Amino acid sequence: MLVTTKKLLVVAREKKYAVPAMNVNNLEAIKAIISAAEKMRSPVIIQTSEGAIEYAGIEYLAAMIRVAAKGKIPVAMHLDHGKKLEYVRMALANGYTSVMFDGSALSEKDNLRITKQVVKMAHAKGASVEAEIGAIAGIEDFVSVEEKDAHLTNPEQAAQFAKETGCDSLAVAIGTAHGAYKFKGKTHLDIDRLKRIAKLVKLPIVLHGASGVMEDVKAIAEHHGAKLGSARGVLDQDIVAAIKQGVAKINIDTDLRLAFTAGMREAVDDLPTVIDPRKLLEPSTLLMREVAMRKMKLFGSAGRVK
């Protein structure tokens, strides 16, 4: 059943678990995530970025997600990293139950002004809003913030921003990064900063760029020809610590991409005589499902749907 992200996240923060927010681009990813959620009895947020919308078309994506959400598992349909108001309007017109406005690259004044506008638009449609303050380093679809320009979230500023905008959840920067190559040196997140934010911001907190770049999935991809080298992600122990401090939504994209491409590479190597795309895509779907299930266990969302 389709629900707003707010409905899922308020409970998650109170109960100290996080709802997985998983990016999709195609049918296989949607089916893998829903299958995992049903197996694990976990609520889930299925989200599409501006890049996914450009690739697949918002009407196709929205229709597939609505079909996937017809069961008993609570599913939110979310716009991830909406940097342009045209995408926010498009998502709301197509029945998305929540949207993110990412004004983190703007001035504080402009981020505040446009976020307020988005909150008014979305709430009028019964949808919830995720805002962002502080920039997340790395590259993911149309999101690109050079490390030297990335800044961590100021707790006092975050509290004032949340109060003034009326947003329903807040994405913060505490050291995560988009993409597969997240860290060159120190890998730990700034949990002390998160603690200070959580004391002041009572809304559900969102963590972007939080994929773990799972070593076993990376190994499958590299065994079948991928060149991933120094790719590495956020430590599981940091994810658990962040959830304890109020993080209620965790975005996962890179780990799903890695699983999809690892499964595809494996299929092409192991099934050289097969030309049926359904057969070649099956390992990708199964591996994405496995990754999604592991995230649901890690985030503590497994078993929350009775």
Describe the structure.
- 48% of the residues lie in helices and 16% in strands.
- With 306 residues, it is of the alpha/beta class.
- Residues 139-149 have low confidence and may be disordered.
- The protein is globular and about 60 Å long.
- It contains twelve helices and eleven strands.
Give a topology summary:
Blueprint lengths: L4 H11 L3 E5 L3 H14 L3 E5 L1 H7 L1 H11 L6 E8 L2 H9 L4 E4 L6 H17 L3 E6 L3 E4 L2 E3 L9 H11 L3 E4 L4 E2 L12 H10 L4 E3 L7 H9 L12 H9 L2 E6 L1 H17 L6 H23 L7
Parallel strand pairs: 1-2, 1-11, 2-3, 3-4, 4-5, 5-8, 6-9, 8-10, 10-11
Antiparallel strand pairs: 6-7
Please give a handful of descriptors for the protein shown.
single chain, 306 residues, alpha/beta, TIM Barrel, eight-stranded parallel β-barrel, 12 helices
Low-pLDDT stretches: 139-149
Q: Which architecture does the CATH hierarchy give at level 2?
A: Alpha-Beta Barrel
- Major sheet: 8 strands, parallel, barrel
CATH class: Alpha Beta
Number of domains: 1
- Strand order across the largest sheet: 1-2-3-4-5-8-10-11
Please tell me what the overall shape is. Answer: globular
What is the CATH homologous superfamily assignment?
Answer: Aldolase class I
Number of helices: 12
Order of helices and strands: HEHEHHEHEHEEEHEEHEHHEHH
What oligomeric state do the depicted chains represent? single chain
The residue fraction in helices comes out at: 40-55%
- DSSP summary, beta strand count: 11
Instruction: Kindly report the average pLDDT value.
Output: 91
Strand content: 15-25%
